[in-house]
Amino acid sequence: MDSPQILVIDDSPTILKMVECHLSQAGYRVATASNADAGVDAAEAIRPDLILLDHQLPGTTGDEVCRRLLAGESTRHIPVVISSAMRNRAFANYTELPNVVDQIPKPFTPDLLRTGVANALQVGAMVVRAQNTGCAMPEVVDEVKDSLLEGQTSAFPIRSVIDFLNNNACSGRLTLELEKDRIRFTLSGGRIQAVCSPTISPDRLFDLVPPELAELAPLLAATLGERLDPSMSGLVRMLERSLTDPRRLRALLRCQSAILSHWALTAGPGKFSFEADAAVPPMFQAFPLQMSLPALAVEGVRRCDPAGDADASAPAVFARQAPRGGNLDRTGLSPAEMKAYALFDGSMPLAEVAAQAGLPVGAAADVARGLELAGLVERRAAPSGASILVLDDDPEASRAIQSALGPGGRGCQVKAVRDRVGAQLLLRRQRFDLVIVALDRPDHEAFVRTCRELSPESCRFVGIAGLTDEEELNRLDAMGLDGILHRPISEPDLVATVDHLLRAPEAVACG
């Protein structure tokens, strides 16, 4: 992660050199400008984390520069620290400017400079947003608000924390701190009711809002934060009365929440804390989400990172994971998305899942990747191309194996024979990754030893037998097989056994 960048606007070459020297040594990136025009241009170009601004500049003053910064959409949220030798006489000009967060009197020592910059970086963005939106500022930075649960996402992924809270029907606000961003999930009744951020600017979301909601996108300035002041409540009441179709506003709130959820699920490590019984933002009180994390994750992928090349996604294979807590909340997933989830069995390629679910391949890929972020599916490498030899005189068993593992199933090359001579000829001519052989009688053991002599060391052996007693199981265990299938053969057991053996590190790489 890049270190914070400081823009210094001062007409004194000595001050510029001194500030650049000491802040660079403290680990900051420093840009400089010697006049107001150059400073405003630099602020628009680099969007620094903080501006250190001299009050007296050639032809103008720092308060005029602050007003120019406030007028620019890309610079209005940048915190500014004023430095001046005039002290209180100068600082009185800045009391009404919301982007000014602190002051440093000249002349300043290196320690005062570093401390002032560090403090301003810590609270600057919070102060600017509070003054622009009317949000309340905490009396103490990082104050503890009776957190019932807190920790690091490096140890407890945010999806697991949300699952735990929802499975236990906890109500409150979960705050996720990620670098400069703060994302908050309001939970109630085992579902997500709101997702907001008091630190993220609406312009970061505008390009991600779908065209059909672009007309409502300006409302993000009100819905993104957590304003609880009377003006916000009045706006909510006005919208409730004036909207002929509230579904579009609900769609905007869902879109906002999906984007923020995607950023939360894909971000690097951060901190989380949960406060019980926190107030729901007014807009979401009127229009609660009532959604599950998987649904938000799927839509988040669709908005932020949709599948590109559908052909590249078509062969991918996904498998369902057991829901944490034993209960999959389906709220917000469409019937087609739920059908796709049910079809993710670890064997079917994405193209076939899409066809059976009635979705385009790209849409099915978005569903898979969203559910993967939510921890409900995992990507697997299909064992396609693996060569398998089956020796069994039961035609029904052979057909079942061919159906499950052959081109119409797992995509493997399956050859089935009913006699030992044919099996030995094939083993001499071809290299197999797996041999499935009937072992219903004790005299079959010698044949297995012969097959092993004709096969490479990497070849795996699975026996088929109708196990009736413990002595029979002990006989098969003594043969050192890689797996055993019980008659009648169960397709899930067959697929699971083959997947395990062909994906094992020591097995032959397939596909």
Number of DSSP strand runs: 20
Distance between termini? 37 Å
Q: How many domain units?
A: 4
Mean residue pLDDT:
82
Fold and architecture overview:
One of its GO terms (biological process) is phosphorelay signal transduction system. The modification 4-aspartylphosphate is found at residue 54. It holds the Pfam family Response_reg. Residues 5-121, 387-502 form the Response regulatory domain. With 511 residues, this protein is α/β, with parallel strands linked by helices. The chain folds into 4 domains: 5-133, Rossmann fold, CATH 3.40.50; 148-291, no CATH class; 298-380, Arc Repressor Mutant, subunit A (Orthogonal Bundle), CATH 1.10.10; 387-503, Response regulator (Rossmann fold), CATH 3.40.50. It is built from 20 helices and 20 strands. The chain has a 5-stranded parallel β-sheet. Strands 8-12-9-10-11 form a 5-stranded antiparallel β-sheet, covered by helices on one side. A 5-stranded parallel β-sheet has the order 17-16-18-19-20, sandwiched between helices. Helix 16 links the parallel strand 16 (387-391) and strand 17. The longest helix is centred in the N-terminal third of the chain and has 24 residues, at 110-133. The two termini are 37 Å apart.
Outline of the structure:
By secondary structure, the protein is α/β, with parallel strands linked by helices. The chain is built from 20 helices and 20 strands.
